[in-house]
Give the backbone structure.
Amino acid sequence: GENVEQHPSTLSVQEGDSAVIKCTYSDSASNYFPWYKQELGKRPQLIIDIRSNVGEKKDQRIAVTLNKTAKHFSLHITETQPEDSAVYFCASFYGGSQGNLIFGKGTKLSVKP
Amino acid sequence: GAGVSQSPRYKVAKRGQDVALRCDPISGHVSLFWYQQALGQGPEFLTYFQNEAQLDKSGLPSDRFFAERPEGSVSTLKIQRTQQEDSAVYLCASSLSTGVNTGELFFGEGSRLTVL
């Protein structure tokens, strides 16, 4: 079955710097890769997603890149702000089940003012 | 309502008790998902409904776990004879589309279950 590895588990940056979180997946049939932001005690919220027919997608300060050959995808946050502090989860969908997103273990991002 | 609503938000159960967790999805959303999130981990899939049909229950960890969505709206996740390893946050999510890759998943705030 699919396995998703996420790194780093914690990341601390200064306000204004960039942050990069990387994920690898195992099943080459995976075709959909969403990223979720979860603030402490709150619900996960979708911040960006990418499909396997696209290599990069941007939304203001957030971008995601996908390398299908290497089976990894990354989240890039530029000009970080303190409100970006949260746990970020990557996920992969490989079509084995319509409900079965496989999540990474999360990255706790801290943005220091 | 404006979002996915779950109740109770917090539940403490003694080992061996049965619990029922409720999810009110966004009105009109076809798909409903249950996930289990252990402390410090990512959500893990439990089960998926399309309207009232439970299309996938492969993630349910044992036969003590049961979920239903009888009228294609509200869903209940029931855990019988709770064990300490069942302690987790149970997240419900809904989507207007079918399947996780066809539309955004909207999560509820979760029900935190603690089994003593």
Observations:
- The mean pLDDT of chain A is 92.
- The two ends of chain A are 41 Å apart (CA to CA).
